Amino acid sequence: MIIDGLIEGLSNIVDPVLLGLMFLGVLIGIFVGFLPAVSGLLGTALMLPAIVGMKPLMALPFLLALHAVSYTGGSMTAILVNIPGTGPNAATLIDGFPMTQKGQAGRAMGAAIASSSLGGMLSVVFALIFIPIVIPLVRLLYSAEMFFIIIMGLSFLAVLAGSSPIKGLMAGGLGLLFSFVGFQSTTGIPRFTFGSVFLLDQLNIIAVVIGLFALPELIDLATRRKTIALCESAGIGGWTDVWEGVKDVFRHFGVFLRGTVVGYIIGVIPGVGAETAPFVAYGQAKQASKHPEKFGTGIVEGVIAPESANNAKEAGALLTTLAFGVPGSAVMAILLGAFFLVGIVPGPEMLTDNLGLSFTMLLGIAVANVMAGIVCLAFAPFATRITKVHPDYLFPVILVLGLTGAFAAGAQILNLAVVVWFGVMGFFMNRFHYSKPAFLLGFVLGMLFEHYFWHALNLQGPFFFMRPVSLLIILAIVLIFVIKPLKAHFRRASRKRPITEA
Amino acid sequence: MKMRPSTYLVITTLVVTAVVIAYSLTYPYLESKLLPVLVGSILFILTGIQLIKELRLPEDTSAPMMERAPEYGLIECAPSAAWIVGLCLAIYLFGFMASIPVFVIAYIKSHGRGWSMAIGVAASLTAFIYVVFIELLQVDLHPGLFMDFLS
Amino acid sequence: MKNDRSVKSIRALVMFTALSALCVFAGSMAHADMAEFYKGKRITLIISSRSGSSVDLVGRTVAPMLAKALDATVILKNMAAAGGMEGLNYVATTAKPDGLTIGMRDSASCYLNQLMKAPGAQWDIATLKYIANIQPSPMVLYVTPGGPIKTIEDLRKAKGLKFSSISPRGWMSSVITGTMELLGLDGKMVSGFKGSSASALAVSKGEAHASAVEGYTLQRYERKGQARPLLTTGAERDPAYPNLPAITEIVNAPKDSVALFMAGLPSGKLMFMPPGTADDKVAYLADVTWKIINGDEFKTEFMKRVGTNVWKKNVTGAEFAKLAKEMVARKTLGKEMLAILQKHRS
User: Fold this and answer.
1) Among C202, C235, C264, where does a domain finish?
2) What are the chain C neighbours of A338 within 8 Å (beta carbons)?
3) Does residue A155 belong to the interface with chain C, where contact is any CB pair within 8 Å?
4) Neighbouring subunits of B (3+ Cβ pairs under 8 A)
5) How many independent structural domains does chain C possess?
6) Best residue in A334, A459, A460 for a mutation probing chain C (most C CBs within 10 Å)
7) How confident is the model at residue A164, as a pLDDT?
């Protein structure tokens, strides 16, 4: 039956009209992704009226194509100007932007585009292979397991902390505290809102990220009055540089593969949040690296890891959204609405009776990623020229685009105040070496951490961790964070011994 | 014992954290106060340790690899920060479409560049924002308090 | 004498006929005026919910039909911030009462938020103007399929029940705690699930024992094998589940019981306008909308999009306005509801 579905999906996807429509979706997706702070969310929501009356086979792959590749566009903005094009690109700028400053923008973009596109394609393969087992596995995840998955994500704080663990943890703790602003999910009590209706919702992540990362960089740029690429001698990153980045993905194939797997797995789990995947992938790559100290200084692995996870999570997320009707992210919630709008009711039968459509969508993601890869690679050499524009022009343009994007993210004027507030924080965190990625990880996971903690406690009681799956996850956390230091210890020990033994 | 600039930040964090803990304790239900108090307390302890470290140990000169150290002092950064805050205020008061061209022209001109470039960049950026955000993405860009008041 | 009386009554009849004819004429004149007013205008439909939600879906179904009927442009705008209160707050406090702004939200949340004094709620349901409440429907209680609870008796006997629910003071929580109170159930409600489908997933996995949702949504969950319907919490049986008893059939509660009110609360997609909107505009829009939402085109689209085979009665704006006033008049209602919610939450 799966083979039948696959054949049906393949024959659907080669329809030239559908391919044309998807290409349009890809172009829109890349464009909104590339715009600072404007995500596929806005693009997808905007296309909803357009799909009314379309056949599901046309409408759904079109929307998915748009959404699935917006991160590829977003990675370029993160790398070039230190503003994530979309929320989940925030992890990309940790190493992407320093590469640009070193004059390696082309290479970073090549690596980002290739890893996100290839990751997106590879995850479709995973999705196809694991269709039969994923659904029962996801059903095993109770709130307790979700809680420990979030803990696993949070434990990467230690990895992102930088050279001073205390300062890193302080930054992470601050991030957690800021995530508590707004309605508490299980009681509906508003916290730290000071009577403001605006603060009832959680702080908008886009506004936080723009403030934290982009504003200090813009201040620096304008004060320095020199182009983004610090080395004057560096080329502007032509084709050869971009191609070098593409080759980097294959040089660091392990990093890419693990990033994709992490992205796929986190995508499959509903309710972990789209922003989590790239951070975990980044933390994991750093954790597993032989030279973790180089992460953050502009190395290509730091770009490959989050970007491979970024597009990979979509194929996973699609499956669970389809099967359970529980959207994993805001965009998936809109997509779910789109399903209803064209008369498709999601449910497990999507993976049995409606397999043809499901496979068309999955293959659509793969095809969209190929298209996005080609379009972005062609565009990248031109985009890198931004790094050679003088700040006298670049500063106002980026600032205006960033602020407009931050406003558009929630159509709330007070988001500008959020941007400024976190801009000040980011500025001082830069000066005194507090890890901003650690802050962001705490911020992203804080609400989920609290939510799942109370659900686990209320639904499963105080011994919620005594479930087999929970224990397995706890074991995994211990292994990740004990094995590596142990291995390092033994390596150091063996180095002290005579060389003959080696 | 010498106060460094970073120490002021640590002290501020310490005070803010204490306020957060005290504030959190006023919330009804254990569910809404436990984690803010817990995370706040951990943060308070960490900040305390950091404070003692900074007051007792000599400044660590090894800048972490995560962030690049800024090369400028506060005073030198102030003008660019002022431009940013100014733009935000202008947008708040006069809206996006009015503030953007004025800001761009003012910024470029004040940095000694020619009129043609200033107007060119301002016009194209404003047009871009209009087409993309208002026409294509259909975002209702904030019209500004002042404009609201007039209409 | 008799003759005189009949003359009188004939005269009265003539007068009455003339008057009503005048009224109809004036009414149609007014309607013609209004039709002229709305022609080519730009109407904003504020959806107080995120895009893709069920309110949004119904809004997107109604908007083009409204545009066609009025020969106007209808722009849809989602304002979902502040837990879905943003749009309603906007319509109630900021939007101009020029007849060109219509709001839309789940009707139950509109009055529950206000009665229970939800932080951030800035509207007053007694002053808003109403166009219609589309397909109001009560909830149906469901349990884990294949689980130990098969009947209402099982439910009553069970100890330590866990109900999953979405927003802590929202419609679902109100229905669940009202039902718990009426049936005297032992257990607690765990709220905070993100959407009714997440709540249903928890029930289907067996993580929670039961939850509640509108009948037509439950039909979907049941088809997926995610739920076993048990009981209609409304005053009457749900046409989607004619075999399930309504809660009034199994408990004897006084008519003004707060728990009964909470459990049986129906919710539809409420269309409303800013306070102070001219009555003739509201009446005209209500009239046009009423024709649309009771027409075959809307009915077919609605049933297809929410995936149901059941069609219920719509409620007019005037009826809803009356209901809203009654509710606000019950001064202690909010407090009593909060007490019941409080008693059964985790």
Assistant:
1) C264
2) 52
3) no
4) A
5) 2
6) A459
7) 81
